[in-house]
Protein backbone atom coordinates (compact mmCIF):
# COMPACT_ATOMS: atom_id res chain seq x y z
CA UNK A 1 0.00 0.00 0.00
CA UNK A 2 1.39 3.43 -0.92
CA UNK A 3 0.81 6.21 1.58
CA UNK A 4 1.14 9.87 0.61
CA UNK A 5 2.16 12.37 3.27
CA UNK A 6 1.72 16.12 2.80
CA UNK A 7 4.15 17.92 5.10
CA UNK A 8 4.97 21.29 6.54
CA UNK A 9 7.86 21.81 8.92
CA UNK A 10 10.10 24.38 10.54
CA UNK A 11 13.58 23.45 9.37
CA UNK A 12 15.46 25.59 11.89
CA UNK A 13 16.89 22.65 13.84
CA UNK A 14 17.34 20.29 10.88
CA UNK A 15 20.27 19.71 8.53
CA UNK A 16 17.96 19.53 5.52
CA UNK A 17 15.71 16.72 4.30
CA UNK A 18 18.10 13.91 3.32
CA UNK A 19 19.54 11.46 5.85
CA UNK A 20 23.12 12.30 6.77
CA UNK A 21 25.21 10.34 9.25
CA UNK A 22 25.43 12.09 12.61
CA UNK A 23 23.06 14.92 11.67
CA UNK A 24 19.41 15.54 12.54
CA UNK A 25 17.39 15.56 9.31
CA UNK A 26 13.72 15.74 8.46
CA UNK A 27 13.81 12.37 6.66
CA UNK A 28 15.46 10.57 9.58
CA UNK A 29 13.14 12.12 12.18
CA UNK A 30 10.01 11.35 10.17
CA UNK A 31 11.13 7.78 9.37
CA UNK A 32 11.79 7.05 13.06
CA UNK A 33 8.36 8.39 14.04
CA UNK A 34 6.69 6.29 11.33
CA UNK A 35 8.60 3.21 12.52
CA UNK A 36 6.98 3.71 15.94
CA UNK A 37 3.51 4.08 14.47
CA UNK A 38 3.93 1.13 12.08
CA UNK A 39 5.72 -0.97 14.71
CA UNK A 40 8.61 -1.88 12.44
CA UNK A 41 11.81 -0.67 10.85
CA UNK A 42 12.04 2.92 9.63
CA UNK A 43 10.43 3.02 6.17
CA UNK A 44 12.12 4.27 3.03
CA UNK A 45 10.67 7.65 2.15
CA UNK A 46 10.53 9.09 -1.35
CA UNK A 47 10.21 12.87 -1.43
CA UNK A 48 9.12 15.22 -4.21
CA UNK A 49 11.84 17.74 -3.34
CA UNK A 50 14.47 18.42 -0.72
CA UNK A 51 15.44 21.30 1.52
CA UNK A 52 18.80 22.55 2.74
CA UNK A 53 19.79 23.07 6.37
CA UNK A 54 17.53 25.48 8.22
CA UNK A 55 14.98 25.76 5.40
CA UNK A 56 11.26 25.56 6.23
CA UNK A 57 8.76 23.70 4.05
CA UNK A 58 5.04 23.92 3.38
CA UNK A 59 3.27 21.65 0.90
CA UNK A 60 6.14 19.15 0.70
CA UNK A 61 5.04 15.68 -0.43
CA UNK A 62 6.58 12.29 0.23
CA UNK A 63 5.39 8.70 0.11
CA UNK A 64 6.20 5.35 1.66
CA UNK A 65 5.18 1.81 0.77
CA UNK A 66 3.96 -0.47 3.56
CA UNK A 67 2.44 -3.93 3.78
CA UNK A 68 -1.26 -3.71 4.57
CA UNK A 69 -0.62 -6.10 7.49
CA UNK A 70 1.63 -3.42 9.03
CA UNK A 71 -1.17 -0.87 9.19
CA UNK A 72 -2.42 -0.16 12.70
CA UNK A 73 -5.95 1.19 12.86
CA UNK A 74 -6.08 1.55 16.62
CA UNK A 75 -9.87 1.43 16.53
CA UNK A 76 -12.03 -0.03 19.29
CA UNK A 77 -12.92 -2.99 17.07
CA UNK A 78 -9.25 -3.98 17.05
CA UNK A 79 -8.98 -4.12 20.84
CA UNK A 80 -8.48 -7.54 22.35
CA UNK A 81 -11.82 -8.81 23.59
CA UNK A 82 -12.04 -10.92 26.78
CA UNK A 83 -13.13 -14.54 26.42
CA UNK A 84 -16.75 -15.25 27.30
CA UNK A 85 -15.74 -17.28 30.34
CA UNK A 86 -13.25 -14.62 31.51
CA UNK A 87 -14.05 -13.44 35.07
CA UNK A 88 -13.54 -9.80 34.06
CA UNK A 89 -16.77 -9.83 32.03
CA UNK A 90 -18.98 -10.72 35.01
From TrEMBL:
GO biological process assignments: RNA processing
EC main group: lyase
Start-end of Acidic residues biased regions: 77-90
Coiled-coil regions listed in the entry: none
EC number, UniProt record: 4.2.1.70
Gene Ontology MF terms in the entry: catalytic activity, acting on RNA; pseudouridine synthase activity; pseudouridylate synthase activity; RNA binding
Chain intervals for the UniProt region annotation (Disordered): 69-90
Keywords, alphabetical: Isomerase, Lyase
SUPFAM superfamilies, per database record: Pseudouridine synthase
Name of the protein in its database record: tRNA pseudouridine synthase A
Organism: Serinicoccus hydrothermalis
Organism placement in taxonomy: Bacteria, Bacillati, Actinomycetota, Actinomycetes, Micrococcales
